[in-house]
Structure to design on (336 residues):
């Protein structure tokens, strides 16, 4: 679907959903939360969405029903944000790389190469003042941010070995819709192409792009390894999510229900953190066992070359992201 057809259809749904919600609340019918996402149910996000569903339904004694729609079943990346704002779905967990179409470019700080030296440093940002401040920026867009969910550090893949920065020259690489990721590929000499997640595995199969970056769990569950002959364990960037809800829907819930859902979200988030790394490690092992793909590790010297090659992204992008945000993250992650 395309605008304005999409908008018209969504607005019709939103109107229906809003009146259905009000009707449900007065009639004692369950409150429905449609939770749409683009990955498979066995990824970290997919599993956490199901855990949230189970917890929310159990803690609310069935007053809340969470319908999880995985795998871009309802909407692709860009469309799902529009659908959330219009109220056609109530909950999403888009990757932090996908918020700039909403006009909140600050989240692209999470895409800066090598910005997080460890998961601990990342959590210090997402669970602290900086993370909360970023979520608050969504309020003006009619969105409430509830939590950060984890996936992991990204690896690079292509149909040729990627060992030196010069190996990227001329390759068409799929990226998420982030200008920082676009710039990252350009400084490597590659041609970035922003594609929806659901379009990525087909584009790799058909040769529209020759490579990509993602976490092992996203690569394995989309069977990208079957067409990508080489993987490099570069861990050069981070992929995580913000769990978001339509603000009008959220504010309109009875206060008690909202508290229950906040507790369910806190538990699902804690669970998500325990499974993310494990799921990615298992996915990498499955790719290894599939035997389709050569897995490369970088020597310390090669790693230093990658860092050096990607360093110009900071100077080129900090104006766009906001120098204050980039600086605050850098100071936070440098703390002992
Ligand atoms: C991607 O588009 O590669 C990811 O954002 C997909 C996801 O939701 O993990």
């Amino acid at each position: 679907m395309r605008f304005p057809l999409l908008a018209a259809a969504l607005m019709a749904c939103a109107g229906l959903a809003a009146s259905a919600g009000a009707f449900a609340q007065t009639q004692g019918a369950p409150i429905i939360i449609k939770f749409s996402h683009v990955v498979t149910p066995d990824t970290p996000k997919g599993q956490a969405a199901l855990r949230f569903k189970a917890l929310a339904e159990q803690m609310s004694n069935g007053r809340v029903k969470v319908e999880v729609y995985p795998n871009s079943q309802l909407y692709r990346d860009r469309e799902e944000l529009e659908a959330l704002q219009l109220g056609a779905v109530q909950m999403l967990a888009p990757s932090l790389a996908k918020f700039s179409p909403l006009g909140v470019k600050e989240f692209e700080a999470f895409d800066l190469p090598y910005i997080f030296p460890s998961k601990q440093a990342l959590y210090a940002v997402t669970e602290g003042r900086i993370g909360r401040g970023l979520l608050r920026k969504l309020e003006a867009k009619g969105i409430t941010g509830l939590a950060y969910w984890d996936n992991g550090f990204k690896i690079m893949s292509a149909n040729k070995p990627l060992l030196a920065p010069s190996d990227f020259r001329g390759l068409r690489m799929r990226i998420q819709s982030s200008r920082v990721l676009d710039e990252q590929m350009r400084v490597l000499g590659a041609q970035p192409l922003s594609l929806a997640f659901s379009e990525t595995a087909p584009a790799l199969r058909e040769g529209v792009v020759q490579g990509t970056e993602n976490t092992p769990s996203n690569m394995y569950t989309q069977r990208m390894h079957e067409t990508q002959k080489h993987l490099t364990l570069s861990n050069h960037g981070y992929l995580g999510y913000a769990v978001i809800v339509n603000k009008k829907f959220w504010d309109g819930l009875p206060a008690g229900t909202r508290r229950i859902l906040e507790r369910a979200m806190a538990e699902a988030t804690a669970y998500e953190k325990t499974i993310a790394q494990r799921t990615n490690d298992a996915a990498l092992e499955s790719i290894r066992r599939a035997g389709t793909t050569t897995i490369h590790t970088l020597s310390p010297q090669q790693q230093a070359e990658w860092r050096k090659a990607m360093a110009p992204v900071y100077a080129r992008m900090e104006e766009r992201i906001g120098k204050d945000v980039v600086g605050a993250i850098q100071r936070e992650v440098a703390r002992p």
